[in-house]
Amino acid sequence: MTTSPSRNLETFPNPAAERDYTIRMSIPEFSCLCPKTGQPDFATLELEYVPDQRCVELKSLKLYIWSFRDRGAYHEAVTNEILGDLVRATGPRFMRLTAKFNVRGGIYTTVVAEHRAAGWSSPAPVTLP
């Protein structure tokens, strides 16, 4: 059993690649270090994506997220790095990463980064009676 962090994001074939559907994940235990003070920063990551041909495998995502625990990183940089790595691994139609950092110095920080594949647009919402 793997008990150490890993930067390797594994994927598997999308079982319903013929349609748009949304995968949502909440990752409440993200942590990294403040690059200025070395103190820990904690965040909840909210990942939403519309897969194309590949989906991210959950255990590899957990180990990947764990790999940031001892790294110094600004909130904006780490959010965009994670999104970029996930986009490269999965090639989604759409992906949004929202990083909600806990209070630091009386300030809550939320960073939202998005990716849209060329030519993809969100379908119109369905309104039911």
Quick overview:
The chain contains two helices and six strands; from the N terminus they run ββββααββ. It is α+β, with helices and mostly antiparallel strands and 129 residues long.
What does this structure look like?
This protein has a single domain (11-116), classed as GTP cyclohydrolase I, C-terminal domain/NADPH-dependent 7-cyano-7-deazaguanine reductase, N-terminal domain (GTP Cyclohydrolase I, domain 2, 2-Layer Sandwich), CATH 3.30.1130.10. Helices cover 19% and strands 38% of the residues. It contains two helices and six strands, in the order ββββααββ. The strands form two sheets. It has a four-stranded antiparallel β-sheet, covered by helices on one side. The model has no long low-confidence stretch (mean pLDDT 95).
CATH topology grouping: GTP Cyclohydrolase I, domain 2
**CATH architecture designation:** 2-Layer Sandwich
Instruction: Please tally the helical runs, counting DSSP H or I stretches of 4 or more residues.
Output: 2
Gyration radius (Cα, Å) is 16 Å
Which stretches are low in confidence, meaning pLDDT under 50 for 5 or more residues running? none
Q: Residue-averaged pLDDT, rounded?
A: 95
Helix content: 10-25%
Tally of DSSP β-strands: 6
Biggest sheet character: 4 strands, antiparallel
